[in-house]
Amino acid sequence: MNRTVVITGATSGIGRAAAREFAGRGDRLVLAARSPATLAEVRDECRAAGADVLVVPVDVTAPGALAALADAAEAEFGAIDAWVHTAAVMTYGRFDETPAEVFDQVIRTDLLAAAEVARVALGRFRAASAGTLVLTGSVLGHITAPYMSGYVAAKWGLQGLTRTLQQEARETPGVRICLVNPGSVDTPVYRQAGNYLGRVGRPPPPITTPERVARAMADCVDRPRREVSVGRLNVVMRFGFTVLPGVYDALVGPLMRLAGLTDRPVAPHPGIVFAPNPAGEAVRGGWLPDVSRVVRSVGGVTAAAGSALLRRLR
Ligand SMILES: NC(=O)c1ccc[n+]([C@@H]2O[C@H](COP(=O)([O-])OP(=O)(O)OC[C@H]3O[C@@H](n4cnc5c(N)ncnc54)[C@H](OP(=O)(O)O)[C@@H]3O)[C@@H](O)[C@H]2O)c1
């Protein structure tokens, strides 16, 4: 396609899958996140796929950082055609047991930084009368679950912000804003999360892949849409939350403890809320079997068995 695409949150999970997806579609990439070492790895992956890549280490919550990122992108490649914002952090814990500074930093990262991305990107898109902003919401921007108050509050805020921006964008031809709302996705976010609950989190089933969400994001840049939901049960959960609030509230706590938490104990810690953990960064979180690896190992075992059989027959 040969567009210039900025991806914030490109070192892990959905953002890293998006970097690979856009690289495969022939776009130029500007990749940002906090960890310089992992950014260099993702740059190499995308260059191997044939993409021109600029990496810029950025903390999206740092004042002025996102404007500087846009300046760097324009200096390297000219106008920005699309900005895909996936950076976010998560914490588990009852609201009254989560340190206030951790809650505040989740809101700063997941909501206020997304607003700053919109401010910077839309300013440049408006001047050029062209550009697509893709923001990453969540099914948790339409429903709620216990022990994730900061994340849920930020995603509800992002939902409202995005809809407002979309209404305002009707006055700025050529400027498009899309919100992609995943359900459960197999990424490292659950282990990278801060935790004040005592049990490690996990994605409740059904779990989809970050590659599928990345394809939805790239499709949004090709053909912008207001909102895209990626997750088989998203609609069902929204229906139960809206139409049967009493039943929903009675069931969501037990279901969260059953399907959204492991039995693995964990001491209180802030996860990656304040600083990155490069060792935990990858595209997949390891909650789903990696089909290509299974195929490779089945293929390897079959080939080994075949050659052993041939040796015996000779
Ligand atoms: N996984 C799911 O089940 C799921 C479901 C619904 C919605 N989502 C949404 O999808 C998006 C991506 O999530 P994910 O699961 O892919 O998470 P992930 O694997 O933990 O990746 C998060 C990315 O955000 C970056 N990031 C975090 N804080 C940052 C900061 N202050 N400045 C710059 N970059 C920062 C991380 O890099 P550094 O740490 O190196 O900075 C990393 O690249 C998020 O918006 C999340 O809310 C995920």
UniProtKB/TrEMBL annotation:
SUPFAM superfamilies: NAD(P)-binding Rossmann-fold domains
One GO CC term on file: membrane
Top-level taxon of origin: Bacteria
PROSITE patterns (alphabetical): ADH_SHORT
Annotated keywords: Oxidoreductase
Ranges for domain Ketoreductase: 3-188
InterPro entries named in the record: KR_dom, NAD(P)-bd_dom_sf, Sc_DH/Rdtase_CS, SDR_fam
Family: Belongs to the short-chain dehydrogenases/reductases (SDR) family.
Listed name of the protein: Short-chain dehydrogenase
